[in-house]
Amino acid sequence: MVLGAIALLSPSCKMVSSFIHDDTVVAKVGDHKLYLSELSDYIPNGIPPEDSTKLALQYINSWAEDMVYMDVAESELSKSEKDVSKELEDYRRSLLKFRYEQQYINQRLDTTITDKQVDEYYNSHQGNFVLEYPIMQVLFMSASEDNPDLELVRKTLSKRKLDDIFVVDTLLTSSAMRYVDYGGQWVSAVTLALEFGTDYVSMLSKNKDNFIEQKDGKGGVAMARIYRMIPAGRIGPKEYYVERIKDAILSARKQSLLNELEMDLMERAKREENFEIY
C-alpha cells in the first residue's frame, strides 16, 4: 500500500515542475491533499530549477508516506489507541516548561569565565581530568612517496632536536600535501591516528625516538614528530581541558538558575495560595 502510493507520487521531473507552477493541489493520498503553498514553504528561494524539482519530489514522497501511515494507523488502531490527547498535553507541558526555562536562563546567565575560575575548577576537580588516551604536542605532515624532498623531510623530522623551526616550517609547507603543527596545543592520540588512517595503538607502535612514519599504500606517506606526550592514566594539563571546564562551569550555573527558578515558583505559589495539598 505504501509503495503503491509512493509510486503514484513519483512522476518525472517535468511533471513535478508543472505542479510547482499550477498553483493548485500538487499531490493527493486518499482524502489528504498537499497544496502548492505548503510545498512552496519547503523550497528555498533562488535555487536552480533542477534543485527545486528534486526537493519538491523529496517532500511530496515524504508527505505521501506520512499520510499513508496515518491512514493505516487510523483504520487499524482502536479508539483508545488513537487517543493521544494525554501524550500531546504532556508534550505541550514539557515544551512550554523547556522554552520558559531557556528564556529564564538566557536572561540571567553570566557567561563570563575568568582564568582564575578555570584554575579553581581544574584544581578542585583533578579526578575528572585523568586522560583516557595519550595526548601529545606534535607536528604532522603527509606527502607523496615520489616527492623529491621526502628524504630531507624524513631526516629533518627524525632528528632528536629540530634546530631551526623556521627552516622546518618552510620545508614542510612547500613539500607536504597536508601539514599541521600541533606544537602549540595538545591533541589526542586518537585524533592524530585519524591523520594516519589507523588506530592510535597501531600508530604509537611505530613511534621511534618521537618520530612516526607510515605509508598509506596509495603512494603517500605520513610522518609525525612528537614534541611532548603524556600517557593515558595521568592527569592531563589544564590547557587541554579549558573548553571542557568552561562548559562545566556554565552547566553548573544553568542548573543553579533552574534550581532557583523552581524554588521561587513554588514559594510564590504557596504565598499566593495557588498550591495546596489535600
The CATH topology of the largest domain comes to: Chitinase A, domain 3
- Low-confidence stretches are 1-22
First-to-last CA distance:
54 Å
Whole-number mean pLDDT: 86
> What is the overall silhouette?
flat
The gist of it:
It is built from 12 helices and 7 strands. The chain folds into 3 domains: 77 residues, no CATH class; 78 residues, no CATH class; 100 residues, Roll (Chitinase A, domain 3).
Task: Please provide a written account of the structure.
- With 278 residues, the protein is of the alpha+beta class.
- The chain folds into three domains: 77 residues, no CATH class; 78 residues, no CATH class; 100 residues, Chitinase A, domain 3.
- The protein is built from twelve helices and seven strands.
- The longest helix has 30 residues.
- It is flat, with a radius of gyration of 30 Å.
- The two termini are 54 Å apart.
Draw up the topology in text.
Layout: H1 2-8, H2 13-22, E1 25-29, E2 32-35, H3 36-42, H4 49-76, H5 79-82, H6 85-108, H7 115-124, E3 135-144, H8 150-158, H9 165-175, E4 178-181, E5 187-188, H10 189-196, H11 200-205, E6 211-215, E7 220-230, H12 242-271
Antiparallel strand pairs: 1-2, 3-4, 3-5, 3-7, 6-7
Keywords:
278 residues; alpha+beta; Chitinase A, domain 3; 3 domains; five-stranded antiparallel β-sheet; two-stranded antiparallel sheet; 7 strands; 55% helix
